[in-house]
TrEMBL record:
Entry keyword annotation includes Hydrolase: yes
Species of origin: Herbiconiux aconitum
CDD domains according to UniProt: GlcN6P_deaminase
Xref: NCBIfam families: PRK00443.1-4 (NF001684)
Signal peptide positions (record): none
Keyword match Hydrolase: yes
Source taxon at top rank: Bacteria
Classification via InterPro entries: Glc/Gal-6P_isomerase, Glucosamine6P_isomerase, Glucosamine6P_isomerase_CS, NagB/RpiA_transferase-like
The entry's keywords: Carbohydrate metabolism, Hydrolase
Name recorded for this polypeptide: Glucosamine-6-phosphate deaminase
Domain Glucosamine/galactosamine-6-phosphate isomerase: 12-224
Length: 262
């Protein structure tokens, strides 16, 4: 079962996960982070940036982004290359050469997934994968129906995802139709998963991911297959969990030898 941690707000979630990443890096300077985009992980990146400003050294940390749009230039401000540069590499002072984003350019797209998988394996795998969740239950861009065994590949975005992401573009018509995303199988190979979600719009996806049946119709339910998955949510995102009292009880009685997330 995934560990469910209910926090007061986004800032508290950011602080909690940043603290775990700091502990991870203290034990492994060149730890490999799996990097999500979207609004959800921003509090984590902000909290880490504050720690970096105070002296935390992340310069040896390596990273793999979850996904990228296909069909927009790398330099487009909303390409995940640009977002990862702006929100992660810069503020966290990571080495740009050590952070990989799937290659969504048309040239060589058939082999881009395989190349990305090789790079993850060559790095020794992802130590901690940060995840958000789409309102339709997707993780990365693994839309409903994605195989639990899938690896990095091109996926067609659903109408719902394109509408959700239209806020980053001038209109929904400008949201790319395709993406290249780590597969559910890729994500499940990470040593630890941390899925974050905030707000009532995510409550259904969180309940389905944590307590619903294991089904490709809810890609985030794949986290139930992972032995070390934590779900960090605010009260609104937690509001449809049937066993909420149990999770709160389990967390407040967490044994001291069992550290949070890491
Ligand atoms: N590809 C990304 C996902 O990685 C992200 O988790 C999800 C939720 O986005 P947000 O965090 O902005 O709600 O949407 C996007 O489609």
């Amino acid at each position: 079962m995934a560990e469910v941690i209910v926090v007061r707000n986004r800032e508290a979630a950011g602080a909690l996960v940043a603290e775990a990443i700091e502990r991870l890096v203290a034990g492994k300077r060149d730890a490999v982070l799996g990097l999500a985009t979207g609004d959800t992980p921003l509090p984590v990146y902000r909290a880490l940036a504050e720690r970096v400003a105070l002296g935390l050294d992340l310069s040896a940390v390596r990273g793999f982004a979850l996904d990228e749009y296909v069909g927009i230039p790398v330099a487009h401000p909303e390409s995940y290359h640009s977002v990862i540069d702006r929100e992660v590499i810069g503020p966290l002072r990571l080495n740009p050469a050590a952070v990989h984003v799937p290659d969504g350019r048309a040239l060589g797209i058939e082999t881009a997934g395989e190349r990305f998988e090789h790079a993850i394996v060559a790095a020794g795998g992802v130590d901690l994968q940060i995840l958000g969740v789409g309102t339709d239950g997707h993780i990365g861009f693994n839309e409903p129906g994605s195989s639990f065994a899938s690896l990095t590949r091109v996926k067609t975005l659903t109408k719902q995802t394109r509408e959700d992401n239209a806020r980053f573009f001038a209109s929904v018509d400008e949201v790319p139709i395709h993406s290249i995303t780590q597969g559910l199988g890729t994500i499940l190979r990470a040593k630890r998963l941390v899925l974050l979600a905030f707000g009532a719009a995510k409550a259904h996806a969180i309940a389905a991911a944590v307590e619903g049946p294991l089904t490709a119709s809810v890609p985030a339910s794949a986290i139930q297959l992972h032995p070390r998955a934590s779900v960090v949510v605010d009260e609104e995102a937690a509001s449809m969990l049937l066993e909420l009292d149990y999770y709160l009880d389990a967390f407040s009685n967490k044994p001291t030898w069992d550290p949070v997330i890491i």
